Amino acid sequence: MAKVNPQDPAYKGDGQTVVLPKGTYFLAGCKLTRGESSQKKTPYVDVTMVVYGGDHHGDKTRIRYYLSEKSLFRIANLADACGYQDEFDTDVDAELGEAVLGRVFRAQVKVETPKAGEQWPEKNDVGFVNRLTEPEEAQIDSIVEKLGDPLAPKDGDESDDPTGGGEDSGLSDDDDSIPF
Questions:
Q1: What distance in Å separates the CA atoms of residue 95 and residue 86, rounded to the nearest whole number?
Q2: How much is the pLDDT for 57?
Q3: pLDDT tens figures, 119-136
Q4: Burial code of 104-139, b = ≥16 C-beta within 10 A, e = fewer?
Q5: E-strand spans in the chain?
Q6: Please, where are the H alpha helices in 54-102?
Q7: How many CB atoms lie within 10 A of CB 100?
């Protein structure tokens, strides 16, 4: 068997998600995928996010948001960071998508690793999420001008359903004991 480093740019395929290194990034949601945890049957939505700028421009990562009462503040904070101010229903894909897809925000990304005895791959999560400042909005405009818009459809891209059509995200759903 050959060894493969998923962080090696040679192995990054178009549309695949990666585990980003810890840091602050400009992100925008580009896809929603719904699921349910296997243990507690807690509904969740995985938001695939694309990076604007830096060494990871165009890379995508997934962040899981559980839709339980005690964790709804996370998706509300994300919508607020995206500049969305209206009430929305997390059970309606169109409303959730309007709130969190296609809007650039700033986020502190962290890497979560399994504890001893746990069996799941490293994954990203976000700490603080914030709206862009005016200078950051100008920076995003400059990034898009120089590097292109990672949300723009690519030639031959047939997928125009950002809700993901219910496909499996590929993330472990056995970690619903995380308190947020």
A1: 10
A2: 95
A3: 888 898 998 899 999 999
A4: bbbbebeeeeeeeeeeeeebbbbeebeebeeebeeb
A5: 23-36, 43-52, 60-66, 104-112, 123-130
A6: 72-81, 93-100
A7: 26
